[in-house]
Amino acid sequence: MVGALMRSVLGALLVPGFSRRPRPRRRPDGSVAVPGLVHGFDSPFEQDGWLGGHLVFTSTEVTFSVDADGAVALRSIPLAGATVSVGPPTVPERRSLGSRRVARIVTGDGRSFAVAVDHGFEDALQPRRAVRSGD
Predict the structure, then answer these.
(1) Do 22 and 35 contact (CB within 8 A), yes or no?
(2) Interatomic CA distance for residues 64 and 46, integer angstroms
(3) Which of 14, 61, 72, 105 has the CA that lies 20 to 30 A from 6?
């Protein structure tokens, strides 16, 4: 973690316009892993209802974990029968989310969730198009 921070700082100082920003990781199984936020799970660590961590998008679920390896506080949002809409945050959410893109998910059993990703990570939302209804 410190090494990544140092590479970013040194890169920005030595090469103007250089940014060592993480990119979506496409996995061999077709899933996409990105840093992001999730809303809809109760936790004492949430801020304005949002939890920061790592998201893995597949065609059947979105998985959230607080660590990049997916081992800590693992939660999943099933996408079978879910409706998904993607757009900017609402006006009240902008305080917490800035300009991130938000996917709002209502599961087949009626539970509501939202996931937010930074600009540049929108392609992580693509695997979910296969289960999107109402398009």
Answers:
(1) yes
(2) 13
(3) 72
Q: Per DSSP, which regions of 4-87 are E strands?
A: 25-26, 32-39, 50-57, 61-65, 75-78, 83-87
In whole angstroms, what is the distance from residue 65 CA to residue 6 CA? Answer: 25
What residues have CB less than 8 Å from 41, skipping those under 6 apart? 51, 64, 75, 113
DSSP lists the bridge partners of residue 85 as 104
Enter the tokens of residue 6.
Answer: 């140092």
Between 9-13, 85-89, 123-127, the lowest mean confidence (pLDDT) is in 9-13
Is-contact 77 83, C-beta < 8 A? no
- More confident site: 71 or 111: 111
Alpha helices in the chain (DSSP H): 2-14, 94-97
Quick count: other Cβ atoms within 10 Å of Cβ 6?
11
What is the C-alpha R_g of the chain?
16
CA distance 109 to 119: 30
Q: Which whole number is the average pLDDT over 54-69?
A: 87
Q: Is 61's pLDDT higher than 50?
A: yes
